[in-house]
Amino acid sequence: MRQYLGLDVSQRETSVYVVNETGQASFEGKAKSDPGDLSKLLRKHAPLAERIGFETGAMASWLWHELRRVELPVVCIDARHAHAALSVRMNKSDRNDARGLAELVRVGWYREVKVKSEESQKVRAVLVARSRLVSMRRDIENQVRSLIKECGLLFPRAIGQQFRNQVGELLGEDHQLLNVVEPLLSIHEHICQEQSKFDDEVRRLAKSDETMRRLMTVPAVGVVTALTFRHTIDDPSRLPIGLDSRRLSRPHTSAQLIW
């Protein structure tokens, strides 16, 4: 008899609930939120698992890839959709949530989320880290500008090494703000060095993929935009098919508007 499982994942442990195709419970328990421990428990208590469902969350992608690697039929469920179904239960607990998820995957009333590939997740981590360094660099530049502006010192837009050189020229060797600004410039230099490493990696990734090279032939599309778009889409087959060409052949009317 086929089995359906719900996993309520938390940071340290995961509640597991198993039901059969008629909705009768056959097992409930807990295991560490670790793919190895979970796979052992699932193999032991649900050898005929048809679907194993858990909600989207911070650990969902990692668990999905690891459990898929050992050929377990896991599905990642949209947490907002699952919440709408689970909120009708009187008592909210990890056990009841796991049971509710098991029922959702049994009856098929869930919205599956396509998990991005590990490669796309790695590229996204690079882009997020680079974006954070750019933000930190910009914050320091704006802070230094604000500090020296109060002393009547102004200079044109500059970033990176040029920014530090212009600040150094304006302050000289005996300005009253030198001891305040120097530590900020030291941090700014280190951030620029690390950002440069990410920039090199982003360029290397963008140039190594034919799709991204094509995207960069579009005016105003650079390496960061191309890389972000490419790995946001990830697998195009997971997206719905495009608009019907017949709809594109005639104007769309809404009240008195045509667009």
Physical arrangement of strands within the biggest beta sheet: 3-2-1-4-5
The rough form would be described as: elongated
Q: What's the rounded overall pLDDT mean?
A: 87
Order of SSEs, N→C? EEEHEHEHHHHHHHHEE
Radius of gyration: 27 Å
* Count of folded domains: 2
Helical content band: 40-55%
In DSSP terms (H or I, runs of 4 or more residues), the helix count works out at: 10
Low-confidence stretches: 243-250, 252-259
Q: Approximately what portion of the residues adopt beta-strand conformation?
A: 5-15%
Structural class: alpha/beta
Largest sheet: 5 strands, mixed
What do you see in this structure?
It is elongated, with a radius of gyration of 27 Å. 53% of the residues lie in helices and 15% in strands. The chain is α/β, with parallel strands linked by helices and 259 residues long. The chain folds into two domains: 3-107, Nucleotidyltransferase, domain 5 (2-Layer Sandwich); 118-235.
In short, what is this structure?
The chain is an alpha/beta fold and 259 residues long. It is 53% helix and 15% strand. The protein folds into two domains: 3-107, Nucleotidyltransferase, domain 5 (2-Layer Sandwich), CATH 3.30.420; 118-235.
SSE map:
Layout: E1 3-9, E2 13-20, E3 25-32, H1 35-45, E4 49-55, H2 60-69, E5 74-77, H3 79-86, H4 94-107, H5 118-149, H6 160-171, H7 178-207, H8 210-215, H9 223-233, H10 245-248, E6 253-254, E7 257-258
Parallel strand pairs: 1-4, 4-5
Antiparallel strand pairs: 1-2, 2-3, 6-7
